[in-house]
C-alpha cells in the first residue's frame, strides 16, 4: 500500500526546497479589509520563481528522485505553469526535461519553457492527445513522468506555501485557495491543519469548471467535460490522489462566476498594484461574493500565480 | 530670506509623516540584475497610500500647517497623483480640500479624488487656466495653496522615500528617480546624500518632456512647451525651488525615449509582477538603455507610483 501523504511530508518538502524557491511575502489590502470587515493575508506566489507556486511541487519531486531516475530525465504534459516550473527546476538540477505542450499553447509560454532549456514536443490540444503523446515519448526515452498534481511529492511541495503562510500568520481562521487538479488544495489543507487544527480550508473554483465542487459533494470524482473559464490554471479535474486528500481534509469547496473572477482580478490589480492571473483571483472573488461569513475573521489566501498575457486582459476581451 | 531646504528637513518630515504613510518595501528583480550585472533595489512607492509617493509631500505640508491655516482649508490644481494625495491627506487631518482638475482628467481619477471627500472644481485643460482658476477660488475661499512640487515642505516630504531606501540599503552607489516638477528628485538628492555623500543621484526624464535635462545643463529654467509623453506624471516643468536644489545636488539628468519607457514598464510588469505607471518606468528605461555604467554597482530606483488606466495600456495603443 502506498504511503499516504501527510503533514510530515510537507515539512520535509519545505526543508528540501527552501534553498531553491523564494519565501514569498505576505501582503494585505486595507480597502478590501475595510470592505469585508476582516483581515485578509495574501501569500504572494505570483512573486515566486517562474511566476507561480508550481515550482514548489516540481522542485520537491525532482529533488526526491534517485540518481538513476535523474539520469533518465523527466517528462510531463502541460500548457502552463507546471511546464515552466518543471523546466526551470530540471535545469537547476541538471536534469533533462521533456515537455509535451498542446499546439495551441501561447507562444510566450512556449518561449519561457524553451528558454529554460527543456525539450518541447507538440501535441494536439485536449487531455487525451496530451496523455497519449506523453506516454509515447516516455516509452521512447525512458523519462520519469511528473504529474502536474496527481503525485504525492507534488502535493507535498505545493503545501509549502500554506505552511509558510500559516507559520507567518498563526491566528488564521480560514484559508482559501484555488482548485484545479487539486495539488495546491490538498497540500494546503494538510499544511494548514498541521499547524492549526481549527483552521477552515476552503477550495474555490470557477462555476464553469466545477468538477471539484461536484466531486467533493458526491464523494466520487466527477471530471469536468468542457471547462470554459478565464482561469486557465483551473481547467483540469481532480486526480485520484488529490481527491482522496481533499475529501478528507477540505472543509468546503465553493464556486464563483466568470464575471466575479474578472472583477476580483481587476480589483487586486487596481488596489494592491500587483499582477495576478485569473486563477489567483478565484479565492478573492469568493471572499468578495458575500457567500462566506468572513466578518472579524483572519483569512489567508494563496495568490497562486501571476503569469498573464499582457496583450489580452480579460476585461478587454468583451470590448 | 526664506529657509533653504536641507537634510534635516527631510528627517523631520519623516518623523512627522511616518505614522500616516506606509513604509514601502524594497524589491529586487533577479532577471534584471543578471542582465545588467548589477544589484538594483526598487523602492515601491506604487504600494504607497493613494498609489504614489505624493502622499509623503502632501502629508508633510498639511501636518506643517498652523491651526489657523488648517481652518482655512487647502487648495491645489492637479489632474493626477498630487490631487489624490492631497485629498486623502486632508481628509485624514479633517481639513477641507479643494482640487482644481482639468475637464479632461480621467473619470477614475476624479472619482478617487471625490471619494476622498475633496471639493472638485473643473477648469479648462492647460497650465494657465489651471493656475487662473486656482487663484480665483483661493481668493474666494481663503484656502492655503499647496503646490504639487514647488514648496519646501513638499520637497522634504518627497525626500523621505529615498531616506528610507538609503537607510535600508546603505551601500548604494547610485540612485535613479524620475523628474517632472522636480519635488521627488530634489528631495531624493538631499536625502540620499545626507545618508551617504558618495552616492550619485541621477534624474531621469522622457526625451519629449526634457525641460529638467535642458535646465540642468543650461543653468536656468527652460520650461517644456509641448510635453507629449506617455509618462503623464512627468509633463510638468521644474519650479524655482526644485530647480535650485537640483542644480546644486543632482549629479546628472538623462533622458529616455517613449519606446524605451513602454518596454521598461512592460518588463517590470512581466518580470516583477507589480503594476507601475509609465513615470515609474522612466528610471528603469534609463538603466536598461546601456547609457549608464551600472556594472557591479548597487543601484536604488524609486518606483514613483502605480496609478494606471487598466483599460488603456501603452503597449496596446498602437494596435
Detailed description of the structure:
The structure is a homodimer of 319-residue chains. With 319 residues, chain A is α/β, with parallel strands linked by helices. Chain A is 45% helix and 15% strand. Chain A contains 13 helices and ten strands. In chain A, the strands form two sheets. Chain A has a six-stranded mixed beta sheet, sandwiched between helices. In chain A, helix 3 crosses helix 8 and helix 12 packs across helix 13 (278-288). Chain A is globular and about 55 Å long. The interface between A and B is medium-sized, with 18 and 18 residues.
Write a concise keyword list for the protein shown above.
10 strands, 6-stranded mixed β-sheet, alpha/beta, 319 residues, homodimer, 4-stranded parallel β-sheet, 45% helix
Q: Separation of termini of chain A?
A: 54 Å
Low-confidence parts of chain A, pLDDT < 50 over ≥5 residues?
none
What spatial order of strands do you see in the largest sheet of chain A?
A: 1-2-10-7-8-9
Mean pLDDT of chain A: 95
Oligomer: homodimer
The helix tally of chain A amounts to 13
Q: Bin the strand percentage of chain A.
A: 15-25%
Question: Which structural class do the helices and strands of chain A define?
Answer: alpha/beta
Biggest sheet statistics of chain A: 6 strands, mixed
The arrangement of helices and strands of chain A along the chain is HEHEHHEHEHEHEHEHEHHEHHE
Count the E strands of chain A.
10
Amino acid at each position: 500500500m502506498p504511503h499516504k501523504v501527510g503533514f510530515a511530508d510537507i515539512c520535509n518538502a519545505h526543508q528540501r526546497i527552501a534553498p531553491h524557491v523564494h519565501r514569498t511575502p505576505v501582503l494585505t489590502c486595507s480597502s478590501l479589509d475595510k470592505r469585508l470587515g476582516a483581515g485578509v493575508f495574501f501569500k504572494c506566489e505570483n512573486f515566486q520563481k517562474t511566476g507561480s507556486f508550481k515550482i514548489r511541487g516540481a522542485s520537491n519531486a525532482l529533488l526526491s528522485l534517485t540518481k538513476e531516475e535523474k539520469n533518465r530525465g523527466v517528462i510531463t504534459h502541460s500548457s502552463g505553469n507546471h511546464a515552466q516550473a518543471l523546466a526551470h527546476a530540471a535545469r537547476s538540477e541538471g536534469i533533462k526535461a521533456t515537455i509535451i505542450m498542446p499546439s495551441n499553447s501561447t507562444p510566450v509560454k512556449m518561449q519561457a519553457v524553451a528558454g529554460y532549456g527543456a525539450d518541447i514536443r507538440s501535441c494536439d490540444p485536449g487531455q487525451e492527445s496530451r496523455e497519449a503523446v506523453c506516454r509515447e515519448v516516455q516509452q521512447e526515452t525512458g523519462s520519469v513522468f511528473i504529474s502536474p498534481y496527481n503525485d504525492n511529492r507534488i502535493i507535498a511541495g505545493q503545501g509549502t506555501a500554506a505552511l509558510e503562510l500559516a507559520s507567518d500568520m498563526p491566528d488564521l481562521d480560514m484559508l482559501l485557495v484555488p482548485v484545479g487538479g487539486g495539488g495546491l488544495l490538498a497540500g494546503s489543507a494538510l499544511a494548514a491543519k498541521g499547524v492549526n487544527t481549527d483552521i477552515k480550508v476552503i477550495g474555490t473554483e470557477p462555476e464553469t469548471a466545477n468538477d471539484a465542487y461536484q466531486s467533493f459533494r458526491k464523494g466520487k470524482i466527477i471530471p469536468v467535460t468542457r471547462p470554459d473559464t478565464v482561469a486557465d490554471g483551473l481547467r483540469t479535474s481532480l486526480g485520484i490522489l488529490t481527491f482522496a486528500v481533499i475529501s478528507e481534509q477540505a472543509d468546503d469547496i465553493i464556486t464563483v462566476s466568470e464575471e466575479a473572477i474578472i472583477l476580483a482580478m481587476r480589483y487586486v490589480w487596481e488596489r494592491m498594484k500587483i499582477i495576478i492571473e485569473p486563477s489567483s483571483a478565484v479565492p478573492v472573488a469568493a471572499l468578495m461574493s458575500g457567500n462566506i461569513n468572513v466578518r472579524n475573521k483572519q483569512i489567508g489566501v494563496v495568490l497562486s500565480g501571476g503569469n498573464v498575457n499582457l496583450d489580452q486582459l480579460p476585461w478587454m476581451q468583451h470590448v
